[in-house]
Specification:
about 375 residues; alpha/beta; Arc Repressor Mutant, subunit A; Nucleotidyltransferase, domain 5; 3 domains; 5-stranded mixed sheet; 14 strands; about 20% strand; binds zinc ion
């Protein structure tokens, strides 16, 4: 390794330590990376000049002496995530700390057409202009959608929930002037939950939205499988010969646990379903939800048997599960042969914006790893 390469590597390693620890002293960096204090000081100075790190002052006492703490400048780089669903378009601008700088969600029926992409491009430009992101701080745009995306992150191998034609990437490129890539929505949402989580435990994310999907993460990285179809939990069979799934098979989890299973009873409005459920006046809603949770418990139990990991309930239904999580854990506990402590089952952190955040994380990760 040449001197220049070594210096660049040191600088990147130091930034990654500051980023991972949220804040740290020169001494901590020196110990973690086995670098001399002068080398650390020199690199920190450069990172400060580049606007990537700042000195947050002396906050901590170490052996009587106060040491300066260094933090990364969260807004020094930003990434935009766009989530396309059948009926909505969500845009989320995040910074390096995954904090949401701005977001917008509009009702907009998907149609694979120039006018749709033009509208998307206008919304994208609006959110960037509004937040004065015109100075090269934007790392890229991640676009998530309910489709299986090939590993080139540009072509689509399967899409049933929305109808997309071939070469969608090329046609979008006619309207988007920034670097952008395509991502599966449920994978992206899972990645967002795993990055925002405090633990580094393996995580299985179950997306309970208009369709059912998910992702499995180890070390905060998605396990895509051989064909990018890892985490297609919606097509696990939970009832042989059961209800018809949109994939053409019978008994898939999607046919029992998509948000529609609940929202169909309240005119497509999931919020209204949970309001009725809370009001408790109509026992029919209670029975429907009980049956829904029974089916979901079966899926969660199966996922726990496969992965032995934390399990996060996400998507539209996941964001309403906080009030029912104890009851749900009891249902899973009744099925689990090994354990009765169900703390590994959690409710999602993000509500509607998880997929958009996750697709933007791709660019944050690439920036941090590439320094
Ligand atoms: Zn299916």
């Amino acid at each position: 390794m040449t001197d220049t390469m070594l210096k660049t590597k040191n600088s990147g390693d130091i930034f990654r330590i500051v980023y991972a620890l949220k804040q740290c002293t020169r001494q901590q960096i020196s110990v973690q990376l086995s670098l001399s204090l002068p080398t650390v000081t020199h690199n920190l100075k450069q990172l400060i000049e580049q606007g990537l790190v700042y000195n947050a002052g002396a906050h901590q006492s170490t052996g009587g002496r106060k040491a300066n703490l260094y933090r990364c400048v969260a807004n020094s780089r930003l990434a935009l995530g766009i989530d396309i669903t059948k009926h909505h378009l969500s845009l989320v601008l995040i910074n390096l700390n995954l904090e949401i700088v701005d977001k917008k969600r509009i009702r907009c029926v998907f149609c694979d057409s120039d006018s749709y992409f033009e509208n998307m491009s206008r919304e994208l430009q609006d959110i960037l202009s509004k937040n004065h992101v015109n100075d090269g701080r934007l790392l890229g745009v991640g676009i998530s959608m309910p489709a299986i995306i090939n590993s080139d992150q540009k072509s689509i191998s399967y899409a049933e929930v929305i109808q997309v034609g071939e070469n969608i990437y090329e046609r979008m490129a006619g309207h988007i002037t920034y670097p952008f890539l395509l991502f599966n929505d449920a994978n992206s949402a899972g990645l967002a939950e795993s990055w925002i989580s405090d633990t580094s435990n393996d995580m299985t994310y179950l997306f309970l939205g208009g369709s059912v999907g998910g992702a499995h993460m180890t070390g905060k990285q998605i396990q895509y499988g051989s064909n990018q179809r890892g985490g297609e939990f919606g097509h696990m069979c939970i009832a042989p010969g059961g209800n018809l799934c949109y994939c053409g098979q019978k008994g898939c989890l999607d046919a029992y646990c998509s948000a529609k299973i609940l929202s169909d009873f309240t005119g497509g409005n999931l919020g209204a379903f949970f309001e009725e459920l809370k009001a408790g006046e109509n026992l029919g809603y209670r029975r429907i939800f009980d049956q829904y949770m029974n089916n979901l418990a079966l899926a969660v139990k199966n996922l726990r048997m496969c992965y032995d990991s934390d399990i996060v309930l996400g998507g539209a239904v996941g964001s309403y599960m906080s009030d029912y999580i104890d009851e749900f854990r009891n249902k899973v506990a009744a099925l689990d042969p090994f354990e009765k402590e169900m703390d590994f089952i959690r409710v999602c952190h993000y509500k509607t914006e998880a997929a958009a955040v996750g697709s933007a994380i791709y660019y944050i990760n690439a920036f941090i790893e590439g320094l």
